[in-house]
Amino acid sequence: MLKSSILIMLFSIPVLSSGQIIKFENSSWWIDGKFRKINIYSVNGEFAKSFNGRVDTTIDLKNSYCIPPFGDAHTHNLDGGYRLKETIESYLEEGVFYIQVLGNHGKAVARTRTALASLNKIEVRYANGVLTSTYGHGFYPFEPLAMGIYAPYLQIKFADSIKKSRLVENDAYYFLDNPDDVDLKWQLIMRYAPDLIKICLNDCVNYIEKRKKAIADDNGLSREVAAHVVKKAHAEGKRVIAHVETAEDARICATIGVDGLAHLPGYYWDGTEQKRKKYCMTRRDVKLFKQSGLSIIPTVNINGTTKFDTAGKPVVHADRYKLKIKYQKKMLRLLLKKNVPIALGGDYFGKTVTPELDSLLIHHFLSNKQLLDLYCRATPQSIFPGRKIGKIEEGYEASFLVLESNPIVNFAATRKIVSRFRKGKFLYPTY
């Protein structure tokens, strides 16, 4: 049940325009890593801690807690019109205003962007297709899904038929097997105006051997091609985010100028000792990532220790899963300690970032303070670098969430959002 004072506040909020000067009273604001009970102003859609002119509206927030809105830095949602409105409403209900789609159909994005602009509630950045080698990661899952083959075990069963299909080539994925392919297809890649570039590396040091075997979804770009893509993308002002599988993939990304990793190295480690060195990063890697400015989206909720038999039935390895969690927890904490940028995302289609948050909470990866900072500051700022978002500071965009209680005491408070305020206006309806 919502507190009665909060309910009164909800029903008394006036309809506002972004140009109004609004004074917010009686709330604690998340500023510099702690809650401060002060008055805050929204002046022409920006935060101000003081204002000497005429105030249009004063709103009593009734002893609530206010924090910046959240972000999801790795999703495959909002790809075309499928459940677009429902997905937007789900994100809004959870307080997520900023979203990064790391793999989608480029042909559909213009229509989707028009719908998003019309609704004017959340902001989304799109990669518009995944750059990989022939049959590499990115071909799966997009091509079998385009064929209507959804279950992973069926995708394995019909692998030969899938390899002959090209329904969404140069749309959801691009095959780049040498630098000349990059040059020849670059205008195709750019024609849907991607906000950033998504590349795939999959055990890059064994690229040539894997190309010969041509097993679908078991390869990515060569180092040479990946480096060429990064150079061309940066020349056009585009950031590059990389899907990686092995620790060496991540090291290569750090040395060729990739901006961010879509996964923590070892995210899909099966928990066996014989594969630890190949897939899991080390303390030395933390230093390398820090020096290169590489950011990381951990995706800890993806479980590589549970495998599936030919009928699609899961085979659980609980002991291996515990080892994987222990490794991830150690590395994530070390990365944060050394100030390597971290952003949150789940790598889902059909789900929001909530399962990723749940994994971080259930396994006690971080303190509530650390997790809140990642969710409401670091992640939005990683999606829209250079924007004044993610903080309640002078001159930053006046966007915030109103909570019933203190999320540092209990992180579940982030699930009890009373109201949402975006760029100087409340979003209606309030959930």
Could you describe the 3D structure shown?
This protein has two domains: 4-68 and 391-426, Urease, subunit C, domain 1; 70-383, Metal-dependent hydrolases (TIM Barrel, Alpha-Beta Barrel), CATH 3.20.20.140. It is 35% helix and 20% strand. It contains 15 helices and 20 strands. It has helices at residues 4-12, 84-93, 109-119, 139-146, 152-157, 159-163, 179-190, 207-213, 223-235, 247-256, 276-279, 283-292, 318-337, 354-362, 368-383; strands spanning 21-31, 34-37, 40-43, 46-48, 57-67, 70-75, 96-101, 123-126, 130-132, 137-138, 173-175, 196-200, 239-243, 260-261, 295-296, 307-308, 314-315, 400-403, 417-422, 425-426. Strands 1, 2, 3, 4, 5, 18, 19 and 20 form an eight-stranded mixed sheet that branches. Helix 10 links the parallel strand 13 (239-243) and strand 14. Helix 10 (247-256) runs parallel beside helix 12 (283-292). The radius of gyration is 22 Å and the shape is globular. The two termini are 13 Å apart. Residues 1-8 have low confidence and may be disordered.
